[in-house]
Amino acid sequence: MDSAREPIIRFRGVTKSFGRNVVFDGLDLDVLPGETLVVLGGSGQGKSVLLKLLLRLLRVDSGSIVAFDEEVTTLPQPALAVLRRRIAMLFQGSALFDSMSVEENIAYPLLEHGVRDPVAVRARVGEVLGMVGLPGIERLLPSALSGGMRKRVGLARAIAFQPDVILYDEPTTGLDPINVRRINGLIRSLQARLGVTSIVVTHDIDSAFTVGDRFAMVWEHRIGFTGRPEETRTCPWPWVREFVAGGRGVLEADLVPDPQVGG
Questions:
Q1: What radius of gyration do the chain's Cα atoms show?
Q2: Is-contact 26 15, C-beta < 8 A?
Q3: Whose C-alpha in 76, 86, 194, 227 is 20 to 30 A from the C-alpha of 35?
Q4: Are 180 and 208 in contact, with CB atoms under 8 Å apart?
Q5: Contact 112, 188 (CB under 8 A)
Q6: Which helix (H) or strand (E) segment is 70 a member of?
Q7: Contact 198, 187 (CB under 8 A)
Q8: What angle do CA 131, 100, 50 make, to 5 degrees?
Q9: Is 220 helix (H, G, I), strand (E, B) or coil?
Q10: DSSP category for residue 73
Q11: Cα distance between residue 80 and residue 63, in whole Å
């Protein structure tokens, strides 16, 4: 990635707390257009909170978040709706509606954003299901799907409206190795095929190095390190080395878990 390019998203001086639990205290981060940025960090350090602040599902206590040259923290509701059309999110649990078919789940954001032509909606649903390797399952309910299939349907829904940015919240958590490889392959192929910018929140180091162009690590309520894959592997800082090696004892030693924050 060319670090001289203008960032598509900027976090500056972001603070966020839940009561006395400080999540971020002066967090700065740039996201470059077209890259897959992997956000690493121990459980409870607010990686998922970062994504929710960007979508303004949560509000910052202070600081600035700029996306597409607009200040997210002060956007009025109509402009916020436009922003959310450009930034899609694959939630950790896929967040499918259990009472809706696969087709209805994927069509939901299209209908919400004003696409009313049923032929066009049906065609787009079929197209994105093909992209994630699940053609022909439109009529199934989520209860009939495996965990890996649910993730892929959630991803199909995320890309249905052709977003500029895709946010992945722990996309491989709870999946078997075959589905982990499948999801990682989709993250890379969608980046290449659609030209999207991706932010992947994970604590899975193997997946991180499979999909990541650049890494950012949350440490002591801020982004403590950013670097390319090789810079991350060879970083001399002990807390980066330990995380990359697969042990998280140093990262989690002083954390007090808070169910409001999550991983």
A1: 18
A2: yes
A3: 76
A4: no
A5: no
A6: strand 70-71
A7: yes
A8: 65
A9: coil
A10: G
A11: 18
Q: Enter the tokens of residue 231.
A: 């810079």
Residue in the structure block whose two tokens are 């977003």:
163
Q: Which residue's structure tokens are 């696409």?
A: 115
Instruction: Give the integer Cα–Cα distance in Å for 101 and 137.
Output: 9
Q: What amino acid is encoded at 166 in this protein? A: I
| Residues of the chain above pLDDT 70, percent | 92
Residue length of the chain: 263
Q: Indicate the fold that domain 9-95+168-252 takes in CATH.
A: Rossmann fold (3.40.50)
Helices (H) and strands (E) in the chain, counts: 10, 10
pLDDT tens digits, residue range 166-202? 999 999 888 889 989 999 999 999 899 889 999 999 9
- Measured CA to CA, the distance from residue 186 to residue 152 in angstroms comes to 9
Tell which residue, 148, 194, 192, has the closest CA to residue 171: 148
Band (pLDDT 50/70/90 cuts) for residue 1 is: very low
Give residue 116's pLDDT band: very low, low, confident or very high (50, 70, 90): confident
Per-residue pLDDT, 4: 62
